[in-house]
Amino acid sequence: MSLSYSVSPTISIRYAFPSRKITASPVHSLCSQTQPSLRCAVLGAGFAGLSVVWHLLKNSPKRLDLKIDLYDEVGIGGGASGIAGGLLHPYSPKVKLLWEGAQCWNESINLLKIAEEVANSRKCKVGESSENIETFFGHKRGILRPAMDIKNLTKLNDNVQTCLPSCRIETLNTEEVQNLVPGLRLPLGTAFFMPEAFNIHSQHYLQALFGACENLVKESSTFGSGHRQLSFHKRSVSRLLEFEGEYDAVIICIGAKVNMLPEISGRLPLRTCRGVILHMELPDNIGEGYPDRGPSILSDAWIAVQGPRSLHV
Ligand SMILES: Cc1cc2nc3c(=O)[nH]c(=O)nc-3n(C[C@H](O)[C@H](O)[C@H](O)COP(=O)(O)OP(=O)(O)OC[C@H]3O[C@@H](n4cnc5c(N)ncnc54)[C@H](O)[C@@H]3O)c2cc1C
């Protein structure tokens, strides 16, 4: 058995069965006369699982016959990803650049563009305007981080020094903040604003990314390269041994439930945390919505703006 895992914003683990020899690997097979092939199972269709599927389809050698089975017990976005607030930035809540934050930020923007293109083309096909793509996908008005006490202010001021040029952090005073969100109170008269950060509508993004994966499969058949296949199975997987002999690799992206697989349980230093989300919709009889230029807000709790009349808290 081999285990390798990468912790980007989410975790994915690759599991190789002990009985299958590496001679089946695509790199080795490419050198031989036979058509190389790879069969993969991806468990979990959240941010991690769909990103893995997209990268496998996009980056595998062109000649490879690639069969991917995607399993999720609930459906696309059935776990934390589907209900997440969708706040997207490369920093900790104290605006410290995260480990591999720059790479994660670039990758996330890239995947988002790909998903947006799919959503755009589908809307055009059914004759809808693509002008509303922003409300479909998320709210691109930046994220504001108010300083809450002196210790917090000092820490935030320090952390700001390491911000990325592609996701800047500006220091704003009360007046500047009032222009963005009238009536917002700042305990210390200072807030940190990330104009390039935003929040996505997680379900819309995931559905569109799955569509992008399906498109990659279709494109590969047009260009006459190796055969590509992607199948979605709405099914719970209770142990990895169910798949023994069936796949060359099983990639595990089942989020907080990873410790429920007996083969993984207790082997990784993981700590889970619980999140609760509240979706607030402004009733039609209340006139004034969230300000047009108003950013989302990140603090001990957060407000993810989904539109002028819809907030996640
Ligand atoms: C309320 C809340 C708000 C959040 N807000 C944000 C935010 O604003 N910004 C941010 O960056 N992060 C946020 N997060 C964190 C973020 O949502 C998670 O880090 C991320 O979704 C994890 O993605 P994942 O793909 O690893 O796991 P998941 O999204 O949990 O995906 C795992 C998938 O595996 C499936 N699955 C599980 N067990 C099995 C099984 N045995 N067999 C088959 N399928 C299975 C599940 O149905 C699920 O679809 C939030 C989390 C919560 C709970």
UniProtKB/TrEMBL annotation:
<protein>
    <recommendedName>
        <fullName>FAD dependent oxidoreductase domain-containing protein</fullName>
    </recommendedName>
</protein>
<dbReference type="GO" id="GO:0005737">
    <property type="term" value="C:cytoplasm"/>
</dbReference>
<feature type="domain" description="FAD dependent oxidoreductase">
    <location>
        <begin position="40"/>
        <end position="293"/>
    </location>
</feature>
<dbReference type="InterPro" id="IPR006076">
    <property type="entry name" value="FAD-dep_OxRdtase"/>
</dbReference>
<dbReference type="Pfam" id="PF01266">
    <property type="entry name" value="DAO"/>
</dbReference>
<dbReference type="InterPro" id="IPR036188">
    <property type="entry name" value="FAD/NAD-bd_sf"/>
</dbReference>
